[in-house]
Amino acid sequence: MMSHKKILVAVDLSKESDQVLETACKLADGDKSRLRLIFVLAPVMTSYPFAAGAVALGDLQEQATESAEKKLRELADKFDIPAENLDVVVGAPASEIPAEAKQQQVDLIVLGSHGTSGWRVLLGSTASGVLNAADCDVLTVRIKSED
Ligand code: AMP
To answer: Percent helix, strand and coil across the chain, each rounded to 5?
Structure first.
């Protein structure tokens, strides 16, 4: 199998993220420093439009980012992935994941076939968006449903 030197693993922090990481760790072949983890956080403006004006949106965004960084660190610890290889970025996953892959010069993106947005379909919207936009190889991990 073709060996990829640097791998970007996209996780949505759902419980299915473990399935994506298990495959990515096998691909890293014992060298976890080859893995980078990314979580893309929705802008608070789209998550809480009602909050505009009532509280400082900048503060809300900062809190949401800190909370996501903590969850991503906990997930990375579970799989022994170095803390310096973690990225939380704000935006839309289907465009931010390929953009980060380009910036980090990775040669493979690993993500789930579907997550919260694509349950019971072959490919979710993030997965198909990343496949269309990425300049590098993309591996989709078939997420197994628990029901
Ligand atoms: P979806 O296509 O949105 O159903 O999700 C497919 C896969 O894309 C998930 O299993 C994750 O690997 C990845 N993904 C979805 N949303 C995000 C996100 N916000 N940040 C990083 N990766 C994500």
So the answer is: 45, 20, 35
